[in-house]
Amino acid sequence: MNMKLAGSQFIDRHFHALTHRNYRYLWLGQCVSLIGTWMQNIGQSWLVLTLTGSPFKLGIVAACQFLPILLFSLFAGIVVDKFPKKKILLVTQTVAMILAFTLAILVLTDSVKYSYILVLALLLGLNNTLDMPTRQAFNIEIVGKEDLMNAIALNSTTFNMARIVGPSIGAVMMALLGAGWCFLLNGVSFLAVLYGLFHIQAAPYVRKKTSNDGIMKEIKDGIVYIARDPLLAQTVLLVTVIGTLAFNFNVLIPVFTKNVLHLGETTYGTLMSCLGIGSFAGALTMSFRSKQGPRIKLSIIASLVVAVCLVLNGLSTSVWACGALLALTGFFNIMFATNSNSSLQMHAKEEYRARVMSVYSLVFAGSTPIGSLFAGYVADRYGANGAFVGCGVLTGVLCLIIIWKYRKTAVKKSIEVI
């Protein structure tokens, strides 16, 4: 009985978002689905590299998957504001499941081609353009503002737990049965999140139409709102740099494994799991400190540490060093992402929140096509080591410029955002 009480108190103190029934349904569904997603991620990267042998072509696949987010996420924010988010998520998760099954069938029947993978990546990107800001804005509807940062940290914990488990299972599946089974199991895993969504009962926030302004005017208003707020502007700019240059692991790690370490699928899965272990630890850390709220100084420190880790990773030549540095990179990447995400959502006014999060999706994930092409191109010409170093140096320099420009914000907003 005492053990049960202690466990209940631990959850209430550190994982309070789980006390919300609706959030539990969503979280448990994601626990299953995200493992499948990571199995597909490593399976697709290895499949493309095996088919083409080109890091640059692997970068093109990643670019295709995130290009729609770059082009259309601002429009998605308007849509998210005007329709119930649960219904949108039911549609987007169903579409993602169908795309996973399609890729599985192509691979298992030996019909897959590089061009088919490009098309499916582009379609998944279009789907994610709507899915990402919807999921971000849905959190506050099911947990409230007080538990929002805890929910975001728990989402990161789930995501990175899956990043540990998914690549490990995926590497074994690829070695024994082939990449097709990674895609098939990913398709099946979506049933869990769809089941959870069906059982969520929440009063949706739908922004009432207050004027006859067109979509472009609403997008402009959202961007101007961000630009005029120093905290939002600095956070968005830092997220742009990190999202572009520091999240290209799906391109760089398989190339590093194959061309620098001269090893195979198992090592690739292990290195991805190391990244996940660090990210998981970072997410847990943010969950434990979520009651303190987000701090702009934390985003600043984490962004600079990530830059240093990328450079050091480029200079490493052993599996052990690379694994340790990837774990450290994952730790600070997730601290940065969770803190920045929470800052934006909690600081933004309700009528602007979906538009602010659509901009977040744009700069965090939508910038990936640029980063993927850059990382793939540099890896093609100078190797994966050179790409890691180049991304790290650029990340550090650009972050320092942004920090200097908004240096007064870090002082004035160091105690915020709730």
TrEMBL record:
SUPFAM superfamilies: MFS general substrate transporter. Residues 1-410 form the Major facilitator superfamily (MFS) profile domain. The chain crosses the membrane at residues 23-40, 60-81, 88-108, 175-198, 236-256, 268-288, 295-312, 318-338, 359-379, 385-404. InterPro entries: MFS_dom, MFS_trans_sf, TM_effector. GO terms for molecular function: transmembrane transporter activity. The keyword Transmembrane applies. Its main location: membrane. The keyword Chaperone does not apply. This is MFS transporter. The lineage of its organism: Bacteria, Bacillati, Bacillota, Bacilli, Bacillales.
